[in-house]
Amino acid sequence: MPRRNRPGRRADGGPPERDLGAATGWARAESGADGDWLVRTVPGSQATKFYRCPGCDHEIRPGTPHLVVWPADETGSVADRRHWHRPCWEARARRRPHRRW
């Protein structure tokens, strides 16, 4: 039997949560102490360029799965998008982004 790609139900029994759609490149909204963000997962098969993670200042090499993150209030600004390693993004509250001088 083929697999069905249906979004799961929420824990509270409500309708499934939906991604924000093509307008944001299939991003999901996240809120934290540092503000509201749109977060998109980039699978390794679609990661074709080198990026620098602002959390650790190390390269994200082609083929490495990672996240693209930008402020929720500036969804149209490509300049505000940053590529993060997933663990660096999840640890951002404990560790501030590295600044290159």
Automatic annotation (TrEMBL):
Q: What is this protein called?
A: ATP/GTP-binding protein
Region annotated Disordered sits at 1-31
Q: Which domain of life is it from?
A: Bacteria
Query: Could you tell me where the Basic and acidic residues compositional bias lies?
Result: 9-20
